[in-house]
Write a structure and sequence with these properties.
single chain; about 180 residues; alpha+beta; 11 strands; disordered C terminus
Length: about 180
């Protein structure tokens, strides 16, 4: 993906720097020029932006995430397209992923693990009460904010229990290393 630093997306989001990159998208720290606040801007990779089915799934992620409001879930603010840039604007959470935290700090103490799980489970409970299953719970999707909050991110594989087929024979959804052994 080309360097988008300093680019303005949708006449609103000025990209500051790249935060993360995965197989489907790159996440940037950006400044919302209208509301004068930092946001995390998730932009799907160009080769996927041309795929109508993938774009629809990405838009579905935005709609599912936007239905959720909880202190332990990353808030979604906006979704759109600017030329070939299909994006999702989300709450920026200064800090690190749980994966980065474990690498830099080592194993959690029992008290630290309990605090993390309480917050994580509160976010998951809020999603489940709204009828939404995350389906990709892993350390890279758990954010440890600088202020001590724990936030669950990335509802890209989430499904609405009421309106979606949740499983299909012979079809795996999620990150294999974090799936139940029977799958």
């Amino acid at each position: 993906m080309p360097d988008l630093t300093s680019s303005v997306i949708a006449d609103r989001y000025q990209i500051v720097r790249q935060i993360a990159s995965g197989g489907m998208a790159t996440v940037y720290l950006a400044k919302d020029l209208r509301l004068d606040r930092p946001v995390a801007l998730k932009i799907i990779h160009a080769h996927l932006a041309g795929d109508q089915d993938f774009r629809e799934k990405f838009i579905q992620e935005a709609k599912i995430s936007a239905r959720l409001s909880h202190s332990n879930l990353v808030n979604v603010y906006d979704q759109g397209q600017d030329g070939n840039h299909v994006f999702l604007a989300m709450e920026y959470v200064p800090g690190m992923t749980l994966r980065e935290g474990l690498r830099s700090m080592g194993a959690l103490s029992a008290d630290q693990a309990l605090e993390l799980y309480e917050q994580l489970l509160a976010g998951l409970a809020a999603a489940h009460q709204a009828g939404i299953l995350h389906r990709d719970l892993k350390p890279e999707n758990v954010l440890l904010a600088d202020d001590g909050r724990v936030k669950l991110a990335d509802f890209g594989l989430a499904r609405d229990e009421a309106g979606a087929e949740l499983t299909r024979t012979g079809h795996l959804v999620g990150t294999p290393a974090y799936m139940a052994p029977e799958q």
